[in-house]
Amino acid sequence: MMQVVNHLRAMIEGGSLKPGDRIPPERDFAHQLNISRATLRAGIGYLAALGVMKIRHGVGTFVADGPPDFGGASLSFIGALHGFQSWQMFEARILLETGLAALAAERGKEEHHAALAEEVAEMFAAVDNPIEYLGHDVIFHRIIAQASGNPILAAIMETVTSSMYDKRRKTVERATDLRESADMHRQIYRAIRARSPLEARKLMEQHLRMAQAAQGMEKPSTRKSSPPAERSTTAGTMVEKMPRKESSAS
Amino acid sequence: MMQVVNHLRAMIEGGSLKPGDRIPPERDFAHQLNISRATLRAGIGYLAALGVMKIRHGVGTFVADGPPDFGGASLSFIGALHGFQSWQMFEARILLETGLAALAAERGKEEHHAALAEEVAEMFAAVDNPIEYLGHDVIFHRIIAQASGNPILAAIMETVTSSMYDKRRKTVERATDLRESADMHRQIYRAIRARSPLEARKLMEQHLRMAQAAQGMEKPSTRKSSPPAERSTTAGTMVEKMPRKESSAS
DNA sequence: CGTCAAAAGAGGTCAGACCACAGTATACAC
DNA sequence: GTGTATACTGTGGTCTGACCTCTTTTGACG
What we know:
2 copies of one chain form a homodimer.
Chain A: H1 2-13, E1 22-23, H2 26-33, H3 37-49, E2 53-56, E3 60-63, H4 72-82, H5 86-107, H6 110-125, H7 130-147, H8 151-162, H9 165-173, H10 179-193, H11 197-214
Antiparallel strand pairs in A: 1-3, 2-3
Helix pairs in contact in A: 1-3, 2-3, 5-7, 5-8, 5-10, 5-11, 6-7, 6-10, 7-9, 10-11
The structure holds a DNA duplex (30 and 30 nucleotides).
């Protein structure tokens, strides 16, 4: 099985297989490699689980393209397994996004600035439509991640953020006024455009801490003599994937 | 196939399957779920790829225990796919570890302080043995991650760090004097013990930037009119996993 | 008591058939 | 000629049952 994985890995690293490319039909490919279809499928399944390959029933198997999203499903499972807490997720998000914002302020290009401005405008226009608002919110943060120039950090952020999507959706739906939120995004945009990493970082942290509070996900204060809540079966931990635009913004 | 995944997920979240537990033999389990062994294996393979399950040939299939390590293999592949650069890896590492160090300074317990001191001592004792030195180096950083109290960030750091292991090994092997490095670790330890998040962050950043320079992994300065190096097939990108002690330190 | 060979139990692979889905070509009605 | 329904083709998904390989246990033998 590892034979298949290594073979495909070599093809990818060798450049003979690029994102979006299609691999031969299972029957043919298995014959080429002198292995059974079952073994081939095991290898492909492995890579599909990692997000490296995308399988489309009745169509074919392709090398994943679009924004990298590694460990997406993994985080969810491992979270359930190790009892990751919501506040920990948010803490990770804050650490990542503040750093990302600073980097974006340092390296963001005009195209990113334009895209950010666009989304800010859309957010203001959607203050009365929570669902639409959240969509632009997500894209806004995603553009910052891209502007940071570090796809690794962007991918990690995407993974962490994804698993919080539904909670954000619920929160935003009962939000009464999104104007304040939109304005914070505007300020962040201005700081990035002004190439002020420290300012961007500060504003991003401020923004996220506010969002965290809105979702009641603060870190519980350390109290002595109070058992840490025997995490009930359906405790507030992981969730599903969020939808994503295929050809990412910008 | 997703049926298997969902079933196991439910068992994990429901608490009837805990880390280290063994699932029934494939033949039995498949019969229980009224599916074929092939389908069951597809589901198990999927979870194994995510690191949720551990398969041991001739022995059985178990729920993963030990330190969470999500997306490990994934990062490597996606890296090859999207052409992640070494300096980006290092940048991600710096962002993560500086934050981790600050958190460790805030929340680290006595047990962590003791473990850190232990490793610092071992590092000083191994200044003439690069391989052994690196081992303690790795554990030192891992303890900090644990002391941060955020297993999510710790897991992410572990994933990022793993893929740099061999490069670190090569670098450390030709290092002439590790005393300076050991001393920096000592200083970081002292800052954490003194509960000085800012100091710990600063020292950690200093330490990592020095390590980065030692490996020649700085971000290439932006030069105009010079194509961004058509990433050669075997460009300096991903690498293999690093070995890890099973029952993690501390 | 120790050694090593056989057996049992588990995952890994194989082979070929059949099912389910998506896209395309074809035939038919209008 | 146009358009819709149908059949066909290609591809991944599942099933079956056999056999291979590895690990652990067992027990015979020295």
